[in-house]
From TrEMBL:
NCBIfam families xref list: tatD_link_rSAM (TIGR04038)
UniProt protein name: Radical SAM protein, TatD family-associated
GO molecular function, one term: 4 iron, 4 sulfur cluster binding
Keyword 4Fe-4S applies: yes
Swiss-Prot/TrEMBL cofactor(s): [4Fe-4S] cluster
Keywords tagged on the record: 4Fe-4S, Carbohydrate metabolism, Glucose metabolism, Iron, Iron-sulfur, Metal-binding, S-adenosyl-L-methionine
Top-level taxon in the UniProt lineage: Bacteria
GO biological process assignments: glucose metabolic process
CDD domains (UniProt xref): Radical_SAM
Residue ranges annotated for the Radical SAM core domain, each copy included: 43-235
Organism phylogeny: Bacteria, Pseudomonadati, Pseudomonadota, Gammaproteobacteria, Alteromonadales
C-alpha cells in the first residue's frame, strides 16, 4: 500500500501559516525544512487509510508528541505546511475495497479543515467506503454552529477525545486555546449519538488527576462507547 502515500518536497526552508478561526482566534504553524521536507497526506495503519488534512489544532496537549519534538507516527512524518484541498486528497484514496475504513486523523484537528473533510468524506461514501473522524469535540465551538448535521450524511463513526473527567485536569493536560472548551466538548459528546451511528469516546490512563473510572461513567451516560487508552500508546 506504500505506493499510495503522497509526499511533496518543499523548497522554502521556513513555512509560516496563519488562519483566523470563526471565533476570531488566530492559529499559527511554523515548520522548518527538517520537519517539512516531505508532506504525508495519507498514511496506512493496518487496514485503515488515514487522511492527514491539517496540522492545526484547538488543543496544545502536553502529552502530544508534536509538542514534545516529534510530528511522526510509526514511520510517517505528519508535519504540514498548508491546509490540503479536496483535489489533493481524493486522488490518493485508492480502492475503497482495500481498506476497512478511512480515518481523518493526523496531528491536527480535522474539523479545522471542514470543507476538505466534508468533500473527501462524501467522495468516500459515494465509492462505498466507511469514514471515521478522530476529533477533540470542539468543532461546534470553533465554527459557532452545530456541525454534526453536516457530518451525519458522510461520516459513519466518531472517535472523540475526552481525556479528563474534570475541567482542571483537562486544562492542565490539554491546554485548550479557546475559553469554554471543556463544556463545549461535553456538549458535543452529548449531541453526537443523535447524528452519528457509532460514537466512541476515549480517555487516557496515566494522566495526573484523571479518574479513568469516572471518565467511563461520563461517556456511558451519554450513550457512547468508551475507549480506555494508555498514556504514550499511539496508532
Amino acid at each position: 500500500m506504500s505506493e499510495h502515500l503522497h509526499k511533496q518536497r518543499l523548497d522554502n526552508p521556513y513555512v509560516v501559516t496563519t488562519e483566523t478561526l470563526a471565533n476570531g482566534h488566530i492559529t499559527d504553524e511554523v515548520c522548518t525544512n527538517g520537519t517539512c521536507a516531505a508532506e504525508t497526506l495519507v498514511y496506512d495503519i493496518r487496514r485503515s487509510r488515514y487522511l492527514n488534512i491539517t496540522g492545526r489544532c484547538t488543543l496544545r496537549c502536553a502529552f502530544c508528541p508534536k509538542h514534545n519534538g516529534s510530528k511522526q507516527i510509526h514511520e510517517y512524518q505528519l508535519a504540514l505546511s498548508h491546509q490540503p484541498k479536496p483535489e489533493e486528497i481524493i486522488p490518493l484514496l485508492g480502492e475503497v475495497t482495500d481498506f476497512e475504513e478511512y480515518v481523518f486523523c493526523g496531528y491536527g484537528e480535522p474539523t479545522l479543515n471542514l470543507p476538505t473533510l466534508l468533500a473527501v468524506a462524501k467522495e468516500i461514501k459515494q465509492r462505498g467506503g466507511r469514514v471515521r473522524i478522530n476529533t477533540d469535540g470542539l468543532g461546534n465551538l470553533v465554527h459557532r454552529r452545530n456541525i454534526l448535521p453536516e457530518l451525519a450524511g458522510c461520516v459513519d463513526s466518531l472517535s472523540i477525545s475526552l481525556n479528563a473527567d474534570n475541567e482542571a485536569a483537562y486544562i492542565e493536560h490539554c491546554r485548550p486555546k479557546l475559553a469554554g472548551s471543556y463544556a463545549a466538548m461535553h456538549a458535543f459528546i452529548a449531541l453526537a449519538p443523535h447524528y452519528i451511528d457509532t460514537v466512541q469516546v476515549s480517555a487516557i490512563e496515566g494522566l495526573a488527576g484523571v479518574d479513568i473510572v469516572r471518565c467511563r461513567e461520563q461517556v456511558e451516560s451519554y450513550g457512547c462507547q468508551f475507549k480506555h487508552r494508555l498514556l504514550g500508546a499511539l496508532g
